[in-house]
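Weekly structure sync, notes
Attendees: PL (lead), two postdocs, one rotation student
Agenda item 3: pending single-chain targets
PL asked that the sequence for the first pending target be pasted directly into the notes so everyone works from the same version. It is reproduced below exactly as submitted, 137 residues in total.
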Amino acid sequence: MARFDPEKMALYRMARRHTRAVHALIKDANTRGRADLVNQLRRAAASIPANVLEAAGEWRPGKRLNYLMIAKGSTWECWAHTDSMVDCRLVSDDAIAEVRDLQNQITGLLIATIHRLEADVARRDEDLLSDPASPRR
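Predicted structure, written out during the meeting:
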């Protein structure tokens, strides 16, 4: 039986790098009195790789799409929280450069993966709904 290795998934590796970068950003930032923001950012960052793995382990396309959409939403949530950190002068724009770069890459991969999966689902639905007596295209 083949062994599943999530580290072979580029999206998962990138999501883990992002989570580590977020933790480093928080560690180096002056976040005193902003536990609410820090906790939200940590949770959102941890949600990305978790939902990517949930999607990888799901065999139903609709469920897989749902997990990927949640991961995409968490990525954008991280973006908003890091913006808030800059706005509150907890970190500089320069300090979040690595986090931003990873957020861009993750978002691009997620959107591409979601579009591919949506196209596959649409083709399957079309096949299921097509008249079996009609000639195939």
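Discussion points:
- The chain has a mean pLDDT of 88.
- DSSP finds four helices and no strands in the chain.
Action: rotation student to compare against the earlier draft before next sync.
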